[in-house]
Amino acid sequence: MTNQTISVVNTGAFESVTTQTWSNGRHAVRCVKVIQETWDVKTWCFMAEQPVMFFFKPGQFVTLELEIDGEQVFRSYTISSSPSVPYSFSITVKRVPGGRVSNWLHDNMSEGMELAVHGPVGQFNCIDYPSDRVLFLSGGVGITPVMSMARWYFDTNADVDMVFVHSARTPRDIIFQRDLENMAARIANFKLNLVCERYESGQNWGGYRGFFNRPMLEMMAPDFMEREVYCCGPTPYMNAVRNMLQEAGFDMARYHEESFGATPEPVKEQAQQDAEQAAEVAEAIPRSDLLQVFFASTGKSVQIAPGETVHAAAAKLGLHIPKACGMGICGTCKVKRLEGEVEMAHNGGITDEDVEEGYILSCCSVPTGDVVVEY
């Protein structure tokens, strides 16, 4: 291989940032963080290899495309993060005894793993039903969509009066407790109420105990009849809430709920079609069009499709090039290009002097031919 000239597109720091906006369809993402929320609940954070603004309506869900024991599996999960943090999104999943996908995620999904997601979709959201007073009701892991809504209102300083009521089995089962308490402590228009069915030996609990009921509701939100209600949780929980509101004479046109179950058939069918089309496109790429990226220090190489980044090539080999912003601003993923040509559309994260010396930002550098990198 002979040395070639690098082609650089410098848009200027924080100006015309090179990103795409999320739209419903099939998207390749990478797990960038795993958070242990409770003893049996984890959050997985995902980003695209090249910058994508993950805008969605708080409360919507995505469908994961996974391969488990050689079988293609689709499963839908609500997004628990807020679109106010646009360059990533998160799902939060409870390990369910006997749950094929939830157990696989807990045991296998780790930082650096790639997968495809489909979406975002879903009618359960707080954008389509605007209100200046809302009541969030959740049980167990059903907290995820209403947490996304609350985070959205909190982060955008929305003039919305929120009452948030979450029910859990025991104090150690309260998901997002610190985040909820932080919001309640920082703004006056967020009222938090936690209900635990019971507490176990050694646990301290001074909040509501038992099952959520009408007297609790009237104490927590005396004006609940005038609020937009969003409810999510296990089916028995939502049935109880629905009956409670109907008996009170609540206008059920202002009641919105999301249930956790199997992936809806229309969503599954569309995801299957998208996955098949993606596979056909991948198979249609002639081997002669594939590009080789060689990492000199480790002696590893990989073939990638046109349009993939140097960072993506490294990940395919299990090489971890540190990356923070993923959009060419921070400069964390800088590596030295020894041979070959790349197109680098960065956003100010590298100096002209570094470029002249052969350095590139791997997160936003797309090879235009075979490339050798010092890593």
Folded structure, characterized:
The protein is α/β, with parallel strands linked by helices. Helices cover 22% and strands 33% of the residues. It contains 8 helices and 22 strands. It has helices at 100-108, 143-155, 177-186, 214-220, 235-247, 265-284, 310-316, 352-356, and strands at residues 7-10, 20-21, 25-38, 41-47, 52-53, 61-68, 71-78, 89-94, 114-121, 133-139, 161-168, 190-196, 208-209, 228-233, 255-259, 291-295, 300-304, 334-339, 342-346, 359-361, 365-367, 371-374. The strands form 5 sheets. It has a 6-stranded antiparallel β-sheet. A 6-stranded parallel β-sheet has the order 13-12-11-10-14-15, sandwiched between helices. It has a 5-stranded mixed β-sheet with strand order 17-16-22-18-20. A hairpin with a 4-residue loop joins strand 16 (291-295) and strand 17. The relative contact order is 0.15. The model is unreliable at 1-16 (pLDDT under 50).
Across the major sheet, the strand order is 7-6-9-3-4-8
Average residue-wise pLDDT: 86
Indicate the overall shape. Answer: elongated
Beta-strand level of the residues, as a percent range? 25-35%
For the termini, the CA-CA separation is 17 Å
User: Residue share in helices?
Assistant: 10-25%
Q: In this structure, how is the largest beta sheet organized?
A: 6 strands, antiparallel
Order of helices and strands: EEEEEEEEHEEHEHEEHEHEHEEHEEHEEE
Instruction: Return Rg in Å.
Output: 24 Å
What's the helix count?
Answer: 8
Which segments are poorly predicted (pLDDT under 50) over 5 or more consecutive residues?
1-16
Total strands: the figure is 22
Alpha-beta content class: alpha/beta
